[in-house]
Amino acid sequence: MNKKQNSKQKIQKLAENDARPERAIQPTELLNDTLRRIFGCELADATQKQVYRALCISVRELLTEKNRVFGNRCTEKERKEVYYMSMEFLVGTSLRNNLFNLGLEAEFRKALADAGFDIDEIYAIDPDAGLGNGGLGRLASCYMDAATGMDYPMTGFSIRYEFGIFKQKIVDGWQMEFPDNWLEMGDVWLQAREDDAVEVKFGGEVREWMDNDRFKVAQVGYSSVMAVPYDMYISGYDSDAANRLVLWSAKLPQSFDMAAFSRGDYVRALERNAMAETISKVLYPADDHIQGKRLRLKQQYLLVSASLQSILKKHYKKYRTYTNLPEKVAIHINDTHPALCVPELMRLLIDEHDFGWDEAWDITCRTLSYTNHTVMSEALERWNVDLFREQLPRVYSICQEINRRLIEHLCAVYPNDWGKINYMAVIANNEVRMANLCLAACHKVNGVSKLHTDILRNGIFRDYCQITPERFLNVTNGIAYRRWLCQSDPLLTDYLKQLIGGDFLRDARALEKLLPYQNDEKVLADLMAIKRKNKERLAALIENQNGVRVDPDSIFDIQIKRLHEYKRQLLNILHVLYLYRQIKANPHGDFMPRTFIFAAKASAGYIRAKQIISLIVAASKLINNDPDVNDKLKVVFLEDYKVSLAEIIIPAADISEQISIAGKEASGTGNMKLMINGAVTIGTLDGANVEIHEQVGDENIFLFGMKAHEVEELWQRGYHPTEFITPELQAVLDMLTSGVLGQRFDDLVDSLLTNRFGTADPYMTLADFQDYARAQRDVAAVYQDKQRFARMSLINIAKAGIFSSDRAVKEYADEIWNLD
Ligand code: Z15
């Protein structure tokens, strides 16, 4: 046909009729075409960076076409669509994931090798899109991947932070934060749509008037910010679909600055410009904790208002009405950060589309659903009324009306029970409470693990659950195991494929086919050999980054997650020091060699968390340089934990540390990633550990510590941490205050022993210490018997299928979003 047609045009043509244009791709030809178009060169004379960009652009164009065709088909069939609203998407790297999902990995690897390029080196250029803090953001990305793989039309909405999660460096034993300019390279994945920019209004005041017998309300005297959408295409494994993550970027509207410029107010105009654009500048680095800052509220409203406007616009274009919104659109609120969806959808329906209150409320309730991710009181969002009203006057007046009607209703349900009514109110004590706003409106509310949902039902949300029990349900979290197992552990994946066939690539439950091999010595030996290889890979990284040599034959005991007191990294490091003392006391004793590996970012202002990092670093200096313990004990703190680092650490884990105080970790998802890679959990019965235990049974997990109800009972009785201190534990605490660690950690010890900071040992670290040490002794004993440990590992892999995000997304689709 047309010889001059380039690959981009060819992809477009193919996609018209074929949902899988990738199947007709010729890698070399495609790369050469893109290189010619973008850089005016070909593979033979391109630099590695040019090849990287050309490869990304080729993949992006392929996904653009898939998305266009998929979108058209969904429109034709009038399929219901879901919009996932989240302040965070922890995407990680995209290139390898996309090639893998499109089934193009091997072909491109070969084509590049033929041209003298190593695809692994090209992957290494791809930066992490760190648009999230931790579990919540990563969950959102896992769900985008899963939904796309299952052909669900799902669009993610978030913010195009110029700076995502900070880059962590340890300087003199203290965490320092540095900006991570991911867009420098990561912008290849983004496609701006300037023409679809949306106006978002801040400040001013509410004006009400009569217009031909109609009561009208509007916000006047506001300042505008333009939200510009940037598309990032999301691929799904072996699927017809490609979905979009839409990231909003704040920009000053043209009209605004022109006026100031023409007044000659040049500097002020540019200053204003900078002010507006700070809204999407940086991700707030606090996980599971709120600060109540004005800029954060503006970020949330930018996301919510821009997204809802664009959803409504698209919906109206398709259906010429808004009344069928709940039948055709599901909007999901990921934690309370986008809870402004409730009043903003009301505002748009009432002020801009002329609905009355009752009909608008009905549409709003049936369209919105909400996931809660935490029961920690410091993470439950509440906004100061004055700040809220100042920034969002009209949204505030709608919240007041929601609250007025809610209270009226509650007075009928719970007459004179003012305690309860106050607890359930949307506005009370000079604050707007975002969780109650979601509970009052959303037709479905879910927790993220069985235990967590029980705590919502019977604890913090029990009053709402009493009036609308049918709204509450559990959806246990899941992970995109094709990234976390198949891509990050190719050795294990290839081995499983030849042993049990490739069904598990489509259906994670097929991993159970491994179970019949649990007593097969050859298989157990093979699994151990693979684990050993992955440990060697991590050991090399550790030597390179930390200058510490660790023994791949030692137990790799791994705790990787955000640094938070409730997650109890402190318990882990105190136990390491306890082991250290035991070895010192008996240097020739029989000790199972161990390597304890930590990685964690602390929120920038969270001093106590930073002190714990310092303690880990100080302990590692002391221990790693002590010849007495040299081949028995090592401690490593790896800097700058992020998705791409996790992908290297996780396949090398023997033991997965999930040791939060019971009742506080809503689910955990790292626990699932480690499990599916064959790590055995040492943990409390908290979050999804409960369900991991259900899957593997007592024999294949190391449980310890108080159960959630026992924690509650101990608080009731009165907790006195000093009662739990044995002489050995006291000696460990003395190490922290004596200076042997190169510095004194008096603050940390104080926080465990005295009430000076509120409650002594608020996370009951000391109460669980003895049983933790016991469980760790069990670990060492079991590991002596390599076969037995390998069997535990095998059973963990085999039973991890239920924690696939495919299962989780299917539950959301069926029980919350009502997708077809
Ligand atoms: C976050 O990462 C989580 C909860 C939050 O409320 C915030 Cl603000 C951030 C985590 C939970 O701590 C974790 O247990 C859970 O697995 C994860 O969300 C995903 O649900």
Automatic annotation (TrEMBL):
It comes from the Bacteria. The keyword Amino-acid biosynthesis does not apply. The keyword Cytoplasm does not apply. Its EC number is 2.4.1.1. It catalyses: [(1->4)-alpha-D-glucosyl](n) + phosphate = [(1->4)-alpha-D-glucosyl](n-1) + alpha-D-glucose 1-phosphate. Keywords: Carbohydrate metabolism, Glycosyltransferase, Pyridoxal phosphate, Transferase. One of its GO terms (molecular function) is 1,4-alpha-oligoglucan phosphorylase activity. Its cofactor is pyridoxal 5'-phosphate. InterPro entries: Glycg_phsphrylas (IPR011833), Glyco_trans_35 (IPR000811). It holds the Pfam family Phosphorylase. SUPFAM superfamilies: UDP-Glycosyltransferase/glycogen phosphorylase. Belongs to the glycogen phosphorylase family. NCBIfam families: P_ylase. Allosteric enzyme that catalyzes the rate-limiting step in glycogen catabolism, the phosphorolytic cleavage of glycogen to produce glucose-1-phosphate, and plays a central role in maintaining cellular and organismal glucose homeostasis. PANTHER family: GLYCOGEN PHOSPHORYLASE, GLYCOGEN PHOSPHORYLASE, LIVER FORM. This is Alpha-1,4 glucan phosphorylase.
